[in-house]
Radial spoke head 3 (Acipenser oxyrinchus oxyrinchus), 338 residues
Amino acid sequence: MTSILQPQKEATGTYTFSSRPRALQNRNKYRDPVAEQNEEQAQYGNIMYDRRVVRGNTYAQNILPISAQTDPIEIQRMQEARRRAVARKRAKEQLRPRTPEPVEGRKHIDVQTELYLEELSDRIEESDVQCQTDAFLDRPATPLFIPAKTGKDVATQILEGELFDFDIEVNPILEVLTGKTIEQALLEVMEEEELASLRAQQRAFEELRNAELVEVQRLEEQERRHREEKEHRMKQQREVLRLEKESAKKIAARAFAQHYLADLLPSVYSSLQDNGYFYDSVERDVETEFMPWLMTEVEKTLDKRVFGRTMLDMLIREVVKQRLDIFEKMEQTKHASK
């Protein structure tokens, strides 16, 4: 059974805490690593083991915030050292030899390695033993012890004013009280004046420091602007030099190309003309446009003539067939009349 912490906040604003009771587990003679791991992971609600609870006198403690006590660089260094220690510990845990996992169908169990075997049991052996005693006899209560009186009684008479005079004895006390009060008041006044002077010096120092910080920031900003302006000017100058170099290269390449192509163009044109790349536009138009169109039109005309002749043949065949049918009928009617 695990304990459940239930912090609640009532409507009145008071904070209450309640924890469900749980039963303690029986401890085995040989500890189980799995059970120990579960116990370590369990969370307890006992404030006696809470590190946030301060024990002892807290009047003399002067706890400052972390930012005022420790440098952030030191905190980062401590965190880095802690992370390295955890990583080193984890690496050692991984490199430590361990028992291999059991094969399928088997499991690891604890085995005794002592010379003599001993029976293990989770329950502690108990036995009941009884003893008969005599009954107590009733007796009266013990009387209060009063020691016997010894010696003789002696008295001394003291009259009024023989041992103590208030008016005389009170003067030193009053002088001490008034003197200490005045001295304390003067000390407090001097402390207040000293604190006021310290605050004035602190204010003057802060004003001077703020003025120096403003001046430092102004100088840093001026230096940054000068540096950026210098870098910008140097970049512009480098860009101008690069453009000049590119222009010079382009001019040189153009001059070389012109000089190289001065004698090349006539020879190229002559070779192209010899190979037939230069032609007459009218002749090329006749060959590519007029002749294909003419052939297409001729084919269309021939197709029309063939189609007309085919239709005429079909009509003649139909007429001949119809007349042949008529002649056959006439022949049949003649034979039938005879």
